Amino acid sequence: MFKQLPTFYLIHIIVVIICIACLLMNGPMRGGFPIDNTVADRMAFIADNGLVWTLSWSVWMLSALGLFVFCAILADNLRLTLWRTIGLALVGMGIAPDLIAEVLYAFVMPKIVAGHLGVELFSLIEVIAMHLTGFLGNGLYNLGGMLLTCLAVRENVVKGWVAAWGLLAWFLGLMLSLSVGIGSIALAEIFTAASMVLSTLWMLIFAHKVLKA
């Protein structure tokens, strides 16, 4: 138990960061996303809220790294096998497109707006960034997380409702990737909310049910 305490508290820190990121997305950042607005509206929002927009995306970058750290903690509680390595590698691979997308959102799109480089370029970068993070990055995260959780179930690291909760959280994350892939912003918003709530709560459940057991 005492060996697990540092990671126990680290998971709580990760959850706090992710919660802050989600609150930012549904609050100060919301006007910059393609939800009930136009491209011109989003460009105007970013122009008026550039600093908040960039700082908020920096929190999301920390969240991406935090998710990898959590999955590394999960993997550390499993036997060292090829499947464990593949699962963690998939999560790690998801970081690259996710961070690239967040850099595009945080720094490139504001420069396009400030430089008056046009709606077409802004829209192109927006679509690229959305698919990098929402489809590719998120898909790799959730495939890797699902695999690690399946291994945890097989090894009896998690069981019962704890196992079911984790598997459902990763499944909803995969549905988010599918929603982005088919271009449904409405479904993507629903699955983003559902998967983020369940996954962050599952991190806490894992910390209390596994690390403090």
Automatic annotation (TrEMBL):
Keywords on record: Membrane, Transmembrane, Transmembrane helix
Protein name (database record): DUF4386 domain-containing protein
Keyword Transmembrane helix: yes
Transmembrane segments: 7-26, 57-75, 87-108, 128-153, 160-179, 185-207
Superkingdom of this protein's organism: Bacteria
Presence of keyword Membrane: yes
Residues in coiled coil: none
